[in-house]
Structure formats: C-alpha cells, structure tokens
Amino acid sequence: MLSILSKHKLLQSKFETKIDQFNNILVSIVIAAIFILAYSAILRPINQLQYQKVIQYSQQASHPKTQDMAESILKHDQIRRVEYLKLLNAYQFESNRIKQYPAMAQDDE
After folding, report:
1. Same domain, yes or no, for 29 and 4?
2. Are residues 4 and 29 located together in one domain of the fold?
3. How many other β-carbons are positioned within 10 Å of the β-carbon of residue 94?
4. 4, 22, 25: which is closest to 14 by C-alpha?
C-alpha cells in the first residue's frame, strides 16, 4: 500500500513539473511576443496628424529646445514614432520648466 502511494506521489510530482515547465514556456512566449510587437510599433512611421504636430512644434518659439529638435526631425525622410515620442517628452519637460508670468503694466516698472 505504501509503495502505491509513493508511486502515485512520484507520478503526480512529475506531472506537476511538466505543467510548471509548460506554463513557464508559455509565459516566456507571451512576454517575448509583447516585446516584439512593441518594438515593431515604435519603429512605424507617424501619421499625418502627428506630422502636423511636429510642424507646429518646429514653428513655435516659446520652447526653443523643442523647436530645434522638431526642426531636426523634419529633416528626415521618414519620422519614426520613437523620435516623435522623444519630441513630446522634450516638449512636456520644457513646458514644466518654463514659468510664464503675466505681462507687467507700464505703471508697475
């Protein structure tokens, strides 16, 4: 009776090991697929609306570093999403750093 139970436990542990290995492989495949899809999505070119935003950023003068970056991006034949996202990040960073105060009246001088 004891040997039957030990054989059952041994078979059960082997089966659980195979299931664990299968789960690990499946999770690894899903994670790899997510990374591959994300990488391919970031290398795609931007759409027309995003291109118009890059042109708008290149023509504004309130954020000079963002303007320079947008002008350099426009020199490329094809703008990738990763460059566009870097531009948006730079614009947001520069917007947060710049403090815009209201105009002073001439009497306040």
Report:
1. yes
2. yes
3. 16
4. 22
Nearest Cα neighbor of 50 from 13, 5, 87, 97 is: 87
Query: Residue 1: pLDDT above 60?
Result: no
* pLDDT per residue as tens digits for the range 41-73: 999 999 999 999 999 988 987 888 888 999 999
- List the domain range (segments joined by +) for residue 78: 48-97
| Residue labelled with tokens 């790899």 | 32
pTM: 0.64
Residue in 18, 9, 85, 98 with CA at minimum distance from that of residue 46: 85
Q: Within its chain, how far is the Cα of 48 from the centroid?
A: 20
d(CA 46, CA 78): 8
